[in-house]
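Okay, is this right?
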Amino acid sequence: MHVTMEHRQNTGRITGVADHYLDCRVQFDEEEKATIRLKGLYDLNFDIPPATPPVTMTKAIATDGLFRFSKLGTVGFLIASFFLSFTPGAWSALAFLAAIGCFFVYIYLKFFRVKTLVRRMDDEPQTITVRHLYENKPMTVWKNSPAELLLAEDEIKQHLSGLKTYLAASGDTRQRETFEI
């Protein structure tokens, strides 16, 4: 098993706060790949810390406000376009286009953004499977400081060491033994 770990740091453009990341890739040797394939060990898993920083309260409140406004805006602009249809000019069409725009913002927030925010506010760990590692996909961990990142690195090393031991034990097929007690 060949493990590559790379530390990186991203500094926020506005806040200047540094986020610390650990990128990790695992490459199994041919014997380990054969053991995984033959024994069907793809679903073995372990948990590591999240890959992204948790959502700030400001971002959550702003998204919630935009979500509520898009719902009200859709209904409000539809009603406005109905009443403006009795007046001369293009105001009715403009209000209808605004209602459509609000509706698309609502759909985006409802199905993509809000679910992501709720999931990230829980700060749930990632579950990494052997299949994920077998396909040579990277693991990424986010932490506040380099010291916390080193602790997360040690945790990942322990998980991978345990996985290596498990794979080695799974690959051993013992021959028939006779012994006396």
About this structure: The longest strand covers residues 2-11. The two ends are 38 Å apart (CA to CA). The helical segments are 30-39, 57-84, 91-121, 130-134, 146-171. The mean pLDDT is 83.
